[in-house]
Amino acid sequence: MAQRRAQGWDVATYGLGGTVGPTIVAAVSAWASPTVAALLLAGATALAAVLVRMLPWAAPSGTPAEVPRPARTLLLMLSSGPLRRTLYMTVTVAFALAALPITAVAATTSLGVSAAAAGVLTAAYGLGNLAGSAAVMIRPLRGDADHLMTRLAVIVAVALAVAALAPGFALAAVAYFLTGFLNSHFFAATLAARSEYAPASARAQVFVWIGAVKITAGSAGTALAGTLIGFSLHLPLTLAVALVTLAAAVSVLERSAA
User: Fold this and answer.
1) What is the CA 171 to chain-centroid distance, rounded?
2) Do 206 and 198 contact (CB within 8 A), yes or no?
3) CA 203 to CA 60: how far, in whole Å?
4) Closest CA to 96 of 232, 240, 254
5) 229/227 Cα distance (integer angstroms)
6) Mean pLDDT, consecutive 10-residue segments, the chain of 258 residues?
7) Contact status, residue 184 vs residue 132, Cβ threshold 8 Å
8) Rounded Cα gap, residues 89 and 37, in angstroms
9) What is the rounded distance in angstroms from the CA atom of residue 183 to the CA atom of residue 11?
10) Torsion of CA 171, 95, 49, 32, to 10 degrees
């Protein structure tokens, strides 16, 4: 349980970085200049590196020779049912959620608000992430991480559907908040899965692999959403809901066949 509570802190750092960071950069850019904001980011990164070096040192769980190479790590993840599901469900949800900021901007006209209100929707999503992180820290997730990912992915898909179909701005803001809140729980479940299903000698590599692919999926999702939004306002989130639901269904079928 202590491990899962710590993973809640991990989720919180992502939430803070993704909400407070851009807010500070925007404020400094408006108050001073983009150059000052960029220098502030560089200084914060350097300070973070110093603080990381001050953390207590722990001996590695194995010898360097036991650490698998990238190709072997990928094969390990693909051959392990729980890790394979962690990989494709993490990627799918990250890809799907990347459509939210794009949709927020495009939906302001249909919701009867100004374009600036898109910032409220994205802020609601960020606040939901922070609230979800706090909830996971206070009450860590219980149960098998593999099953938790599937259930939480389905709930995230439902929240995305509500965000897509919201008839008014207030309901859309609530849906964005709930999506962020639920995504924090899903993220915590994926972190638990990485820790509990990866062998000790490859745990760090599994974390890095899945994290890197998740970031790539998010970028790809943003690019695709930006392309699809020109055809239909609801198309990006409709596709997002379908993909997340499909990934959850595949995970259920995989476990049933095992």
Assistant:
1) 22
2) yes
3) 11
4) 240
5) 6
6) 71 73 75 87 90 80 65 85 94 94 86 82 88 87 92 96 91 94 94 88 85 91 91 92 96 90
7) yes
8) 35
9) 10
10) -50
In the CATH hierarchy, which fold is given to the domain comprising 2-54+67-257? Growth Hormone; Chain: A; (1.20.1250)
Measured distance CA(221)–CA(16) in Å, rounded = 22
Q: Which residue, 250, 159, 150, 144, is CA-closest to 197?
A: 144
CB 156 within 8 A of CB 242: no
- Residue 59 carries which side chain, given as an amino acid letter? A
Amino acid identity for residue 29 in this structure: S
Per-domain boundaries in the chain: 2-54+67-257
pTM (2 d.p.): 0.86
Task: For Cα atoms 212, 140, 251, give the angle at the middle one, nearest 5 degrees.
Answer: 55
